Structures are given as structure tokens and as C-alpha cells.
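Example with several molecule types.
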Amino acid sequence: MNSEESEQESTTFKERVYIVVRMIPRGKVATYGQVAMLAGRARAARGVGTAMRLSAGVVDLPWHRVINAQGRVSPGGDMFRPEHQRHLLELEGISFRRSGTVDLKVYRWEGPEDGLPWE
DNA sequence: TAAATGACTTAGG
DNA sequence: CCCTAAGCCATTT
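Resulting C-alpha cells for the full complex:
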């Protein structure tokens, strides 16, 4: 271990995404693009979507706190139904507009106070 | 290794 | 509010 910076990535993109998502506090939300940036891949918003789609069964993962840049929740899925996601968010005190969207100006997570492990 | 897929995003119409 | 076109990416075929 003669190096600390040129070391190989010991974590995959998906792993980092989950780590970031687990940092989102209760009552707050983050967008795919935001998570991508924090995970070290600013333009991989779509990759974050892929990671979340494959997250069924992952323990302790607040998947419902990840929404898109328009404030809309997941489009659907057996285990990720829009109504379910909305319900979970409302239980955390997040209110939706008539349009069914979340006001990011109010509920957007500011980001981690301390730096991330890989940054 | 190339092609297809999809919880994305921004800019326009 | 709904739809399309482009750009970008991880994952799966």
C-alpha cells in the first residue's frame, strides 16, 4: 500500500450511489443528478436511475428520497409504485403540490456536511 | 465488443 | 401540461 490516491476504486458506482442515498436525511429529497454528482460522476444521473432500479431488496436504503429534477417520483414498478413512494415521503413530512410534484426549493437536501469518502 | 434499455436532464415546441 | 430531440451513463444482452 504505497499509495493513497492512485489506489484502485474499491467501490463500484452502484455502491457509492447507495452510500450517498443512505445519507439523505429524513424529510428531505435528492435528485438523480444530485446523487450522481455526489457519487463522483456528475453526468451519470441516468446511471443513478439504473442503480435505483436494481435496488429492490437492498436493506436500509431510503430509495423513496430520490426523485427527478422536476420533482416527480418514480414512474412505476412492482415494488416502487408512485403512490407508495409518495406515501413514504408524506410520512416524513413532505407535502406534494396539486400537480403531484415535490417543491425542490423547499425539500432538496443540501448535501453532506462532511466530505465524502472518495472526494 | 456492440447494441439495447431505462426510477435522467435540459432545451424547445 | 404533454411531447420530442439530444446528450450522457451504468448495466444487461
